[in-house]
Amino acid sequence: DWLQLTQKERDVLLDVFLLDGHEQKTFVFVYLPLFLANSIANHDVNLLGGLKFLVEIYDRLLQHRCLSLAGPSVMVDLSSVALVMKDVEDIPTLR
User: What is the pTM of this model?
Assistant: First the structure.
């Protein structure tokens, strides 16, 4: 699945997974493991679709300048979208 992502998507995901908020402000995705597990369990979405949608979420957070909020990191609660991810038929439905 990783090689099916664009270089930009891989770069974004590296930021998502590696930045820790100590040296550079970042997002902390709460319920990310559930989001990914439900993406994998859903044969219509799968891991690739879940990763691509996570990149979309990240891009939207940046567009809305969410990193300008106070503190070393910004908490992003994925619980609702993680639950929906289990049963959604395609990613455009979530947009």
Answer: 0.90
